[in-house]
Amino acid sequence: xxxxxxxxxxxxxxxxxxxxxxxxxxxxxxxxxxxxxxxxxxxxxxxxxxxxxxxxxxxxxxxxxxxxxxxxxxxxxxxxxxxxxxxxxxxxxxxxxxxxxxxxxxxxxxxxxxxxxxxxxxxxxxxxxxxxxxxxxxxxxxxxxxxxxxxxxxxxxxxxxxxxxxxxxxxxxxxxxxxxxxxxxxxxxxxxxxxxxxxxxxxxxxxxxxxxxxxxxxxxxxxxxxxxxxxxxxxxxxxxxxxxxxxxxxxxxxxxxxxxxxxxxxxxxxxxxxxxxxxxxxxxxxxxxxxxxxxxxxxxxxxxxxxxxxxxxxxxxxxxxxxxxxxxxxxxxxxxxxxxxxxxxxxxxxxxxxxxxxxxxxxxxxxxxxxxxxxxxxxxxxxxxxxxxxxxxxxxxxxxxxxxxxxxxxxxxxxxxxxxxxxxxxxxxxxxxxxxxxxxxxxxxxxxxxxxxxxxxxxxxxxxxxxxxxxxxxxxxxxxxxxxxxxxxxxxxxxxxxxxxxxxxxxxxxxxxxxxxxxxxxxxxxxxxxxxxxxxxxxxxxxxxxxxxxxxxxxxxxxxxxxxxxxxxxxxxxxxxxxxxxxxxxxxxxxxxxxxxxxxxxxxxx
Length: 606
Description:
The chain is α/β, with parallel strands linked by helices. 37% of the residues lie in helices and 19% in strands. The protein has a seven-stranded parallel β-sheet with strand order 1-8-7-6-3-4-5, with helices on both faces. The protein has a six-stranded parallel β-sheet with strand order 18-17-16-19-20-21, with helices on both faces. Strand 16, helix 14 (388-400) and strand 17 (404-408) form a beta-alpha-beta unit. Residues 1-53, 365-370 and 602-606 have low confidence and may be disordered.
């Protein structure tokens, strides 16, 4: 039987509504959803379509908290897990307690991968069904992936990449692979918390990054109408036509550009000059000006020099530009001494002025001064921590048309460059420092996202924000799940989210070859968007593409055969084994599609 395909390279995107296997049950039993829904599943039909596991293991390499979450997900779903962990990892013992087979090593080699199960030989499949690489070093991940690909060309490889650009190019190195982008998965959830809405759902399906939401928010042309929320009290799912297109929930490629007056403005060059030429510079300049005035008067009346020439001579003496010696050659001795004193004083003042300006430039870097905040911003979102997650959050907020200010202590952080590109003000400083947060205007903001890499820093920032602005919505990035629960319960500092908990389900789904599904809410009903493979020997082989569509139950969005995805597939085309479909449907509609696309001998679904 032909092995299921994942396509060239898949990058997962999602929101808090993303799921694997199935969404949460709807609050309402829809008449179009036939069959009872099981908790956490698609119902009995879908469970039968999933099929049994093949018994092979999943090799997971990593040492951080994401590794712990992924192993937890895989073990709880019945997978046999071989965990390759650095013995120095704080999660080493815990991973072993979960039931995984632990191999403690510091460096991953070809011999180690072979012992872990990547051992394809003489046309036989490896003992390991998938390899998951979760190292925080992209170079090590790529090196390990290339080694494993040479050992087993058919091995499913799932890689978490920190650098999104490198991740997009992985398919040229590895062929079929799955790339997990943590920032892309986590950022939409943080944005939803900050804006306290669920209007938009980001996803990647059919080789395209898409967004679902209200029609007036989505950029045209719309790919399809997912639900008509105005036709009746109950939304109509997957309608063929709509009486009020502006009230539809649609699928598109991006959000509509929002023209707005920015509530937050960057400092700019004028304020930069004001910060560089501070009070110290102004005082020194004033003293030098007084000396020039006094020297001009004395030169005019004592040396009998005309006013313009007197100004020139006095300024030259004060600024150390030089003085003509013969001018005072016939002057009284006290006048000569005064001229020397003025010149020496000017030398000192020029040196002091130079030192103060250089200190201003070094203490407040030009990039920080220019990118700072002008005026008194209000009704904005403050993002503390501009790493890879913070950078993606800035991009989404800018796309949404939301006024935002960034806070970051490292001027070279990825999000700082993103902020400059998007012309978003950035305050350089410690986000747990009260003065830094005041500079960002937290006392007048709507919400704060604490996204630094430290739990304590995020917690301190949240506590300072709560003191400055009790009405602000606060969302913290917390790595320690237990700490996050206790903080929420006892301190009431707002919500907390973990990037590892947002990423782990998608990684586990890819490793177990389960479908990654995204839930799009429509009132009290939900739609699922996912990809399905037509397996050889299934009922769907030989059917026309249009025969799979069900009004109100299922719609085929795109099709991939041997080439790229076709987002305008002809309904009369015949389906072949191995074709991949991007679909939107209800639970029951998707369950029926799974039954139709399953091989009759019950092989594992993609």
